[in-house]
């Protein structure tokens, strides 16, 4: 994985990646399907030995120091515990936060100087190198998060790279829009005009901190990392203490590219901390001007309340929900929902937690189905989907956190068990903690049960008065508790329209009658806005203009010219 | 001033103003000179009787109820005291904040429905009507703020309209960038592609509050008003209690245009409060999602700390400064600075307060000038400029606030008086409080004297060790106390370069060697960024993408299509 030492300038990197960048900017204009990073782990694309090379590269880090040559190193830490039961023992450098900040500051003027194009070129080179090492990163993501292999490759690799490139495209579009200079010439009637030359310099706001989560250490880290970097800011990446390796590989690649381009590698550093206090001290440092955070409400709200010197972009907990009012594809609907609930054992911020079903049942192409029938049929659909242990373990992955295991165990207290969770043995990883989803039935009045996030494979089928009540309840859940996704199943236009209006009022992305190969918990880069930024689950969106525009400023100077 | 009741739809208004809007969008791309609103108060442009009509329209409001037909009216208030000594006595409706918010909320869906084009069309129609009534608004601005007539016309009229249109152009550019809908078609190898239709709805964040200041009731209000309105939000305008009339006329025009376009006029309402508590209650209302504020640090910081439910765009106090290191146009430099200090008696947020001059004096085209000579020569230049009372009163205007009069009175405590302030009689307005600037000399070590904002015609000539120290001090002042403008006079490229770097680090707009008809305190719409948003004087800029991008969200919905 070593690279030739020949220096490539940022301007050359911009030329190299210009076509991809322009295509990405076109993609965010159109928001149709587009990607430069193939999502299929094909040997033809990634190389015949890529899978094996990636696995070996990760295994070579086990029990070793992961050297990054960062300033202020005071020691090493190894905190990762694999949900698959694999011994990792990778030791990461623990660096003094003040040293990282001082180094980041020192690196900033050179990063400003190369301008929007140079920065975009460097960012795209980093992303290209990351893409080439997708198997290595996928293996690191899988082992640290518990994701199944295919999800780890796709979501941890190309899809995460898409989100990084998308952020660069938004940033580049906004920066390119600012003219580098202009001549301002104001007529003065019969007198000569007033004439001034003006220069407009794009300046980053300051040190950016990106705090990752334990389940999607690249997908949720790359947008903030690349948005901040492209707009002129040095970035300190603070990964979740249980999912450091994917971030550490990413940081190492970024530092290599920066150094090769003649830039200061301390523009991107890794903050490996095992104590929350260390992260808190870093997050409230006066030099830190933006924080991207993905994680729980308690630390997220702490950041928003305490890191007042910084703009905080936060993705927090929510109660995603789906309304089932009626359907003309009952079986396909159940299959779609079953897959949604099983995928990575519901450990996605977009997974449905509450399914709202009228007490009187629903009209379907299979005839009327009572509330209890819907419950039983969804349970059966999940059971059927998980019948093959190889499919089950591939889709479910492993449970990332002991907290989630505890939530699964106590879930039956919160409703009538429609489908119990069971432990599934993993053929390849005997230590893997694999669990099937638990499905609970409860009444709309049991708000304590279903109206707080219960992260993991825990879903409620909530009995509501009727379709209108379901739509109203969905809106209230989103307003009060937040959501990244909602769904509606209905054959009636007026119900879909009402749900659409509710989604506008509450500010949440809506999926309508998903019965095929797209799932409510999937969000495609360059097309789907992930998070709206209007409800308690997230105050920002991946990606829109607001995600990048506030990360830089324009500093002007002007003087008379003849 | 009544308008025909014939309804013009938002779409028709968009067509009517489309060319102007496109030109405005071009202008923010180029940021050269451009305006659709002539700044000269010419009868040929504005009508032969426009000046007289405007004055009469304002005088007709004296002592009367200013009816706006707003909901929740509980009484009337008349709080304005003219710095020119004119009795105003205009009574404004005091409306219940909850009633204004409820009405704003009710008006929002219809405003969302007409889309970005419809909203832009309505905003441009409002601005056109405001422009036609520039004389009326100018008269209201002059009488309430103490501005001289020409400034009241230009800054209160066309220049303020420029800033409003500029905000609409930024908002429109960002909204237009979001596709209304798209088809996402993802290849599936040999299988048929996955195909989805997606719709993207632009939704305003919620009720916007725009809090005006006492000195520029239109120029500092229109950017927030039009940025928020164009992006889909209802706006409550809370003017300074001493400068309500210009805002009230504006709100009345906006409500007329909205009603004529078949929209709910409660999208724009006036909040006339005479108690800070009422504004505080409104600002912290959960429904208020953005606040634009221009004013002092104490209330501004209160808003930032307490109105956490809202995005706050704040322009606060600062210590604007100019470094004089050397010049090859000594007299022109002094004339330029003298005018800057005199214009509206220094009651501009952009007026220079601290002039940093090396202890050893400066090199000039008139030979070496000692520090004391620079002090004396600047004082003489001001004296000369104000020698003609007609010129003096026209440029100085009147002192807006008794607090400023008190600051002028106590200013001599803070330094050696180089030029004393004097009271000047106004030929037309015997009650006008007109004051010439006070110029003080002090040492760089006397930080308590010059390093806090002393709003009004109070300036310090600060003795610094040398040019390098002056540049460093300027940067520190901006970093610690904020500034909207800094200036440099130097014939040496390396000094200008050092000041340029300092302006990037501190985040402040720099004017270099101004000796002609442009002044450091002037900021031209569509070209100069007013405020950088990086130092304590302002957390936002007029206007850039960041000023508009966060005021709306994109809510998507998606479904399978064949």
From TrEMBL, chains A, B:
Single Gene Ontology BP term? L-proline catabolic process to L-glutamate
Query: Oxidoreductase as a keyword?
Result: yes
> Does Electron transport appear among the keywords?
no
Q: Which InterPro entries match?
A: Ald_DH/histidinol_DH, Ald_DH_C, Ald_DH_N, Aldehyde_DH_dom, PaaN_2, Proline_metab_enzyme
Q: Which domain of life is it from?
A: Bacteria
**Residues in the signal sequence:** none
Which keywords, in A-to-Z order, does the entry hold? NAD, Oxidoreductase
Domain (Aldehyde dehydrogenase): residue spans on this chain: 96-502
The record's GO CC annotations read: cytoplasmic side of plasma membrane
Which GO MF terms are attached to this record?
L-glutamate gamma-semialdehyde dehydrogenase activity
Alphabetized NCBIfam families for the sequence: PaaN_2 (TIGR02288)
| Name of the protein described by the UniProt record | Phenylacetic acid degradation protein paaN
């Amino acid at each position: 994985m070593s690279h030739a030492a020949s220096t490539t300038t940022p301007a050359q990197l911009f030329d190299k990646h210009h076509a991809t960048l322009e295509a990405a900017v076109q993609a965010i204009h159109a928001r149709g399907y587009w990607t430069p990073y193939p999502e299929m782990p094909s040997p033809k694309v990634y190389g015949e030995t890529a899978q094996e090379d990636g696995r070996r590269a990760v295994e070579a880090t086990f029990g070793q120091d992961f050297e990054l040559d960062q300033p202020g190193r005071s020691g090493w830490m190894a905190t990762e515990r694999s949900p698959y039961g694999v011994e990792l023992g990778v030791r990461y450098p623990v660096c003094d936060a003040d040293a990282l900040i001082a180094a980041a500051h020192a690196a900033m003027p050179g990063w400003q100087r190369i301008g929007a194009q140079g920065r975009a070129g460097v960012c795209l080179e980093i992303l290209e190198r990351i893409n080439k090492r997708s198997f290595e990163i996928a293996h690191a993501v899988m082992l640290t998060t518990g994701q199944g292999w295919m999800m780890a490759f796709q979501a941890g690799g190309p899809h995460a790279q898409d989100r990084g490139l998308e952020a660069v495209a938004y940033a580049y579009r906004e920066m390119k829009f600012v003219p580098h200079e202009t001549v301002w010439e104001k007529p003065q009637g019969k007198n000569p005009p007033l004439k001034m030359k003006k220069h407009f310099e794009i300046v980053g706001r300051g040190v950016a901190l990106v705090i990752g989560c334990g389940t999607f250490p690249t997908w949720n880290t790359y947008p903030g990392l690349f948005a901040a970097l492209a707009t002129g800011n040095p970035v300190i990446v603070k990964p979740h203490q249980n999912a450091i390796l994917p971030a550490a590989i990413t940081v190492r690649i970024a530092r290599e590219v920066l150094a090769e381009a003649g830039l200061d590698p301390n523009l991107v550093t890794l903050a490996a901390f095992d104590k929350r206090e260390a992260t808190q001290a870093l997050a409230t440092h006066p030099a830190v001007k933006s924080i991207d955070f993905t994680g729980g409400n308690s630390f997220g709200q702490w950041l928003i309340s305490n890191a007042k010197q910084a703009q905080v972009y936060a993705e927090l907990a929510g109660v995603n929900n789906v309304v089932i009012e009626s359907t003309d594809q009952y079986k396909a609907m159940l299959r779609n929902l079953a897959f949604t609930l099983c995928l990575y054992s519901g450990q996605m911020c977009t997974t449905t937690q509450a399914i709202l079903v009228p007490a009187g049942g629903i009209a379907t192409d299979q005839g009327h189905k009572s509330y209890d029938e819907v419950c039983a049929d969804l349970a059966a659909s999940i059971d059927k989907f998980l019948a093959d242990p190889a499919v089950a373990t591939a889709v479910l992955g492993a449970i990332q956190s002991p907290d989630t295991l505890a939530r699964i165990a106590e879930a039956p207290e919160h409703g009538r068990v429609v489908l119990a969770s069971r432990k599934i043995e993993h053929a390849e990883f005997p230590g893997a903690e694999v669990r099937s989803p638990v499905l609970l039935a409860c009444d709309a009045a049991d708000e304590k049960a279903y109206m707080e996030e219960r992260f993991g494979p825990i879903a409620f089928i909530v009995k509501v008065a009727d379709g209108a009540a379901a739509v109203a309840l969905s809106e209230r859940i989103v307003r009060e508790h937040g959501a990244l996704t909602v769904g509606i199943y209905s054959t009636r236009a007026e119900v879909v329209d009402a749900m659409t209006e509710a989604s506008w009022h509450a500010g949440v992305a809506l999926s309508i009658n998903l019965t095929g190969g797209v799932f409510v918990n999937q969000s495609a880069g360059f097309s789907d806005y992930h998070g709206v930024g209007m409800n308690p689950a997230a105050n920002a969106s991946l990606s829109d203009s607001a995600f990048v525009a506030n990360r830089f400023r324009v500093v002007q100077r002007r003087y008379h010219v003849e």
